[in-house]
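Subject: two folds for Thursday's group meeting

Dear M.,

Sorry for the delay on this. The cluster queue was jammed most of the week, so I only got both jobs back this morning. I'm pasting them in the order they finished. Each block is the input sequence followed by the predicted structure tokens. Could you check whether the formatting survives your parser before we put anything on slides? The first protein is the one we discussed after the seminar.
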Amino acid sequence: MNMAIVQISEKTYIFIIFFNKGGMPEHIVSQVENSPSQHFIEASNNTFQGSEIKREVVPLNSSNFVLPYVSYVYGIPNNTVAHVMLYWCYPKTLVNQSVAVTVTMNFGSSILSASYNGRRIPVFYHGYLGIILPINFSQLDLSVPGSYKFLDVQGTLHWIQEGHMQRIPLNLGNWTFETAKEEPELRPNITAFSLENLEFNGGMREVEYSFGLYNPLNTTIRLVNVSFKIPSNLVRIIKIEVYNASTPYEIDKSRLVSSKTIPPKESRYFVITLRIDGKVRSLFIQPKLVYSVGNKTYAMPGLPFQDTALPMACTYNMKTS
């Protein structure tokens, strides 16, 4: 089992998911950074005990959540589950008090949900609580290959405590799903990828989405395109760099290559710079990777990536010195 924690700069740490050559995940490693620039995380046990606060009632409303999303997910109807993080600024000490929380998401005729008890809701970056929302293609009406758009998706957070329920409406934003009939028989294997970027930035921002691909075939694979059906005035690709590497800690300028081809039994690491408009508070993409093998073109689901622009630190749960 390979494990690595990678420092990209003095202010940026990346969380990497490694895969074996069979394409199966081996482990996830994580590290919390010291500044609010780029941050790559995994939804695991990254919790800390917040400082004690007065136990008065704190109003719970929609403004506590970092929403709405702008989202695109490419996948296979019965073999895709996207895990989206919902960030929430609220006192952890109050959530701990025998609270049951359920988030429902309304995608047309399909309703998805995620449920937690209060003690299972972890504190993540700069005091924000995190809830994982699973988007399961098999539970959505996406059986026919094609593109599906859901605008202004509505959701509800159900807060249940001592038999009383409070419902908080959530605007989950705009979602596009694209489905393929099946996964291609010939495809590269994933070696590593960046999972998430978190920062305090309400304006135009540039972030890096990256992944490594290994070619298990005896012929060359060429990456043709990375696409997501989101308006270009909101999100667009401004640069793609390719490195003769399989993980980001191997990256340096001496390994930069000009071709998007992957020779047989070799790996390449792709760093894609996205320009995101300030209107986008939470971006989630699982793009469509188009590649060629010989004279045939194939497509596969890319690696999930989320970018979240936080308005400010969530001081409820910040440690005090």
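Second protein, same layout:
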Amino acid sequence: MTYKSIYFQSNKIMLLAFIALAFSCKKEVKAVYKKNTKDTVSTVEPKEEKVILTEIESNLLKRLINEEIGEQKYKEMQINESPYYVSFANDGDPYTVSFAIIEKGDFNNDGIIDYVIYRSSEGMLGGNVNTNNEFVFYIMKDEIKEKESHRILGYAPFSYNIIDEADFVDNKLKVEVTQNFRTYSGQDLKSTNLSFIYKNGNVYEESYLSSCKMAKLKSKTIFNAIPEVEKRTRSIEMHNYTETISEVYKKNDTIIKASVEGCDNLTLEFSTSYKKVEPDKIDDTEFRKETALQLLGFLAENTQFSKEINIVRKYYQNNAITEDFIEKIKGYKFAVFIHKNDEDKEELEISVQINKIDNPYQKENWEITTRNKTAPKEDEDY
């Protein structure tokens, strides 16, 4: 099935005309993406045949509609034919959110049907925060509830990329993406073709698997196999389509949140807080440094990134901790941030950010998206 990008509109009358066309039709919207660099909404063409949803599919979309509504008041809701949608008055800044199933199949071979759903939110103008769309892989645990969801951003006002065209072929979501004209204003916009597939417990952009060093990690975890790790989540980064891993360590009052992502370059982050710190210690420079070094020591001992963490730890053993990124060690850029909680004056928050740079030509989003390996041409901006 092919989808047409639904973009922007300069006035309310055109928006209402678009909604009337898209949702009054008795047929599934065939949203074939087509790049548009103006704040106008292009119309959508219906399929030739009417799409009839099964009861299970209908219940799934109804659940998504209800989750979208939450505690909000809505102006209109349509849950009789695909796409299902709900409209909000939103204090004079109206928008409409629609859901349509674009593909279904047992993607993880567990005997339960999974779905790819196109979610589109249309505001009055393309630059409106309520104008965005995405493709969501729902890996189901039963007929209605998912155990995983993985979101591929199609458009947002200041996203890095815009999905211009998308086609689901042979269990793969194949797309053409272009640099967002708002984010890359004043430049010749570049495009590339990508392909997404659900494989081995995650949604991947296929070139990530073949062209990114991070894809070669032996373990898809951050912390080692210790019982205090209560949550491990893998998904896909919304802008450059690399794999993301996030985990939560919890023991008594200690909670450490960890995440890692990247293509050739690794981005590693940890954050934690210490509660009920004595008032005479919470601002003490030596206490802060000692506490941060203890955290780095724990992370080095209990994660698979001990090499990278120990480099940071060794640096701060011999240097003061400031809130500046350190770039004195070749191939590394890192920082430790320490501050008091604004609301709880007895809570000390510490975050660690480590970038391991193996490829200096993947510092910007488009270079990561295209898995760039070489320096730009002399007449191109990096």
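Two things I noticed about the second structure. Residues 1-48 have pLDDT under 50 and may be disordered. DSSP finds seven helices and 19 strands in the chain.

Cheers,
T.
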